[in-house]
Amino acid sequence: MTDLKYVTTTCPYCGTGCSFNLVVRDGKTVGVTPFTRSPVNEGKLCPKGMYAHEFVNSPDRLTTPLIKKDGKFVQASWDEATDYIAQKMKTFKPSEIACLSSARTSNEDNYALMKLARGVFKTTHIDHCARLCHSSTVAGLATSFGSGAMTNSILDIEKSKCLFILGSNTFEQHPLIGRRVTMAKKNGAKIIYADPRFTPTGKQADLYMQFRSGSDVAILNGLMQLIIKNGWENKDFIANRTKEYEAMKAVVMKDTYSPENVEKISGIPAAQLKQAAEWIGTSGATAILYSMGITQHTVGVDNVHSVANIQMLCGNLGRPGTGVNALRGQNNVQGACDMGALPVSFTAYQKVTDPAAHKKFEDAWGFPDGICEPKNGYEVTVMMDVLTDKPGELKALYIMGENPMLSDPDLTHVKHALEAVEFMVVQDIFLTETAELADVVLPATCYAERDGTQTSTERRVQKWRKAQDPPGEAKLDWEIIAMVAAKMGYAAQFPWKTSEDVFNEMRMLTPSYRGMTYERLDKPEALHWPCPEETHPGTPILHGAKFSHPDGLGIFFPCEWKAPAEVPDAEYPFILTTGRCLWHWHTGTMTRRSGSLDHEVPTGWIEINTEDAADLGIADGEMIKAMTRRGEVVVGARVTPDIMKGVMFMPFHFVECAANMLTNNALDPVCKIPEFKACAVKVEKIQEA
Ligand code: SF4
């Protein structure tokens, strides 16, 4: 007789945090059905969620540890593999080891790797892919508001009177947040959309402003100038809730940011800018939604500060329908940051350099020989530079669930960096492009095979629930970490038997999670942090009465517009920007192994404006060569009027035409995020032999 069960869990793809039921037949996950009690998605799903079961039992799953011998992977036992790792790791100094954690894995896994790095390896170098997507949000909002997270909730979006969507293709990248935008529109909200591409999100807008990638600060300063000139600023909010207003005002009122000059910088007609300023300034409840179009620039932190500035200027914070809503990309990018998988902080942004925080973790963990030094480590982008530019400074890399060989900018540089590593361990569910370069590969479980928690973009902490057993000998990431720690002599510090044990240890050290228990998180609505006590209801909207800075005030940061690090010139005359598509996820490890999703979009492309394509003699569908100063790829052209003239776009999911062969690893000086959204590119027809 068939054994059928339905297990409610949370989607492993984007940061929206939709729930669904996994259908399990005879012990194997075979489908997805709606879970209507989730307030986030109310039973609705996007295609990625609908087919989230398809990669789980892929024949490509890793099932045993692998050790590279004479350039080839050979199967090994767990005992042999973890023994080997421990013996090798003991030969390196703490400063020679770096760890990459993962926004795809659970909070428990990220906490465990943070503890392994700081407690066992005693290194300060730990980071993860939030560096590449929202490190400018964390740095920018933490300095503006005192907390680096989305201020309002997803449900709150429909209460907005005006939604300004900037640098976020919400309908494709966060489709179930896009649904809330539609609901707001039905309630009468005006939708303003600014993006170089007329995406499906643009098609929902009342006002679409097409602009040149890299001109965000000029646009936001221009909007603020118009708001102030028209007297639409919220004087009470500025006086009572903020500081440094005059310094910010002095910058935005410059002639550089007049509508006419902003038009010259950005390409947005002055009349459109004026309309947008009026709707933003007078709606009474404007929410901004942004994503990586804002963050992935060498001025990413300035961009985020500018978004915070305009919302403080209008008093659009701390109330329903308002807020700075940074839409985080991956399922658990918020949680991985919260768990301290960052080079500067323990959990909940408790600074490593703060003596009290350092002592708190050292005392709680009880490592007899102490923990890492109280200093900041390297960001992932800096790790890559150190590996290529300072040979011998970093020697060992421990990677959990990340694939920098496809996700990071300038892949030739990344390959050189990873090849310079003396010893590399990768924990993953598939043999990724990065795992292929490792010395040891350890098979991990996916979301369907384990209990755990993840924290969505709106700070909602939700549960994964085990639906099936893992394949072969695959283990939970935190279990693997505990095994490695035990082999290095620290079994007593990793005593956990269940994911709940890990969570309970973490929450006692993490003020914003302290009031959460697995039992409380079991209800469909789960809990938003901060949730400091077990009787606390959670906090869907931040900054209600005061900001999170010690004095309770928000801080205006004046920002001047600066051009991207690389701008078009005679040799490379176009701007290249990159991103994702509806059907695939990041480096495609999961979605390209999902038959339904891969069938829809089997390979990558480059979008070229219709007039540019005509000038270049390029036809729709033609294979062409795209080149930057860092590399070249052969890719099919998608000719469309929906992208701005002079701008080209590539999705980065596809190894056979990897967009990141072309991207620029120039970094924001504050948060070290790379400039994925703007570099100079040229394209050529492929000459027949
Ligand atoms: Fe999953 Fe995001 Fe789609 Fe929801 S919107 S089903 S969380 S990918």
TrEMBL record:
Cofactor(s) annotated in UniProt: Mo-bis(molybdopterin guanine dinucleotide); [4Fe-4S] cluster
One GO location term (cellular component): membrane
Alphabetical UniProt keywords: 4Fe-4S, Iron, Iron-sulfur, Metal-binding, Molybdenum, Oxidoreductase
GO BP term (any one): formate metabolic process
Cited InterPro entries: Asp_de-COase-like_dom_sf, CT_Formate-Dh_H, Formate_Dh-H_N, Formate_DH_asu, MoPterin_dinucl-bd_dom, Mopterin_OxRdtase, Mopterin_OxRdtase_4Fe-4S_dom, Mopterin_OxRdtase_prok_CS
Domain 4Fe-4S Mo/W bis-MGD-type per the UniProt entry, residue ranges: 4-60
GO MF: 4 iron, 4 sulfur cluster binding; formate dehydrogenase (NAD+) activity; metal ion binding; molybdopterin cofactor binding; NADH dehydrogenase activity
Residue spans crossing the bilayer: none
Signal peptide: none
NCBIfam families tied to this protein: Fdh-alpha
Similarity comment: Belongs to the prokaryotic molybdopterin-containing oxidoreductase family.
Name the UniProt record assigns to this protein: Formate dehydrogenase subunit alpha
Organism: Methanocorpusculum parvum
